[in-house]
Amino acid sequence: MDSYRVPGCNSVFPARPAGNSIVRHRRPCRRGASGKHLLVPVLPRHAPRGRRVLVVGAGTGNDVAAALRHGVDHVDAVEIDPVILDLGRKYHPERPYDSAKVTLFVDDARAFFKKAQAKYDLVIFGFLDAETMLSAFSSIRLDNYVYTLESFREARRLLNENACLILYFATRPAHYITQRLFDTLTAAFGQPPRAYFIGYDSAGGGGAVFVEGGARDGGFVGGFSDITDQLQRSSHSVTLATDHWPFLYLPRRTIPVSILLILVTFLIGARRVLRRTMVITSLGRRENLHLFALGAGFLLLETKAVTELSLLFGSTWVVNAVVIAAFLMMALLANAVVTVRPPSRRLSYAALFLMLVFGTVFPYSILEALPSEGKVSAAAAIVALPVFFSGLIFSSSLSGAPNPAQALGINLLGAVVGGTLENLVMVAGTPVLGVIAIALYTLSAFCLRKAPMKDPGLAVPGAPTFH
User: Fold this and answer.
1) Distance CA 193, CA 421 (A)
2) Largest CA distance in the chain
3) Is there a domain that residue 457 lies in?
4) Cα(219)–Cα(242) distance, rounded to whole angstroms?
5) Domain co-membership, 276 together with 359
6) Are 262 and 187 within one domain?
7) Which end of the chain has fewer CB atoms < 10 Å from its terminal CB, N or C?
């Protein structure tokens, strides 16, 4: 790692991303060097002295070191990336993670909030800008669920009376992210936070700092700019971040033009590739549209499962492991059942719609009361059973198709389109995934019920029918 010096600080060892820089300082530092962005953890110096501190997004240990430096009794440090923790152990000059006062948790912040029983005098939201997607199946970033209304309420539950919550984020005062964090904290605590701005480089960049809880009016020093009144005047100008719409980095409910252009280009390219590698006839044929809708619905089920379970287990590898394993198991089981004795499509559709509606309205938070094994099993069953019943339908349709290769290609094209439809969550929120999946499977069922077309060029012998 490279190093550079900052006035008032002993040394800085920047790791990637920037929020995981390693700092050793003797007094508060406010400016970086050569425009390098650095928000030094000076705030614990001015926060109420507490016996117990929680740091989420602990990174390489800067906030933990600052807390220890100011005489706290114990620090719980939560970091999702074990590699970053290891870098802090090896390279941080103050060795905060070697202290007997520090307990490390390799976990997602939301998952920790749900499991934690202790009360804290100070809770610090460190840099949680993960710059990473939750999953290849989802447009949600790894850290999105940490900055929602529900997350802040869970953190508030962990505060002692007259305790303090501090959140800092690398953004400017007049920015929609700053406003969204301010408004979301206001809704979570029932009162607006004290908000400050810290400049730290010659380019004028800086970070917004929010102070909530019973000690919010305790007073801060250091010449920080108080931007509370400015943000209060702009309240309600942005959409709150919630578990249903967790897109902190979107200015409004919209799909960015850049993503739309990429999606259109991707769809055109995918269609051309599939048409070159296999003969795909018109989607106007009912049997083709049936298979297309099945493929699109399946991808949305996968995206919905990852999104729902990330709230239950946290944004960790467990989510992808549970979803992929459960989906593969259900697909194999469906193929085995169809091979032995194909069930009625009518019954399969009835069970599929029942599970889709159940999965859309079911409050997954109920499963929190179960032990770990029971929680995994129950969650996997709820998200994977629709795949089993849709697999029964697809296997039956594929076995009756006159051209299995073409049928598979059409189904794959549907899966590609289903993957692009997932981006509608940026407009309508995550519940729309279940609604679109139900609509697509309804379309696939309608195609089976529809009478065969009279044009012999369009009616294919052996086309699937509803029975």
Assistant:
1) 37
2) 84
3) no
4) 30
5) yes
6) no
7) C
320-329 pLDDT, tens per residue? 788 888 888 9
- Residue showing tokens 């010659």: 202
Residue 38, in any domain of the structure: yes
Chain length of the chain:
467
To 10 degrees, what angle do helices 432-449 and 286-313 make? 160
Total domains, the chain: 2
**Distance between CA atoms of residues 419 and 433, nearest Å:** 11
Domain span at residue 188?
Answer: 9-233
Domain shared by 182 and 272, yes or no: no
Strand partners, 123: 54, 165
Residue 444's pLDDT is 94
Residue 244 lies in a domain: no
228 & 318 share domain: no
Give the CATH number for residue 408.
Answer: 1.20.1250
**What pLDDT score was predicted for residue 95?**
94
Q: How far apart are CA 268 and CA 220, in angstroms?
A: 56
| Confidence (pTM) | 0.81
Tokens linked to 12: 């800085």
**Residue 240 within any structural domain of the chain:** no
Looking at the DSSP bridge assignments, the partners of residue 79 are 106
Q: Clarify whether residues 90 and 188 are in a common domain.
A: yes
Closest CA to 149 of 66, 63, 212: 212
Clarify whether residues 225 and 263 are in a common domain: no
CA distance 60 to 67: 14
Using a 10 angstrom Cβ sphere, with 0-12 exposed, 13-18 middle and 19 or more buried, the burial of residue 251 is middle
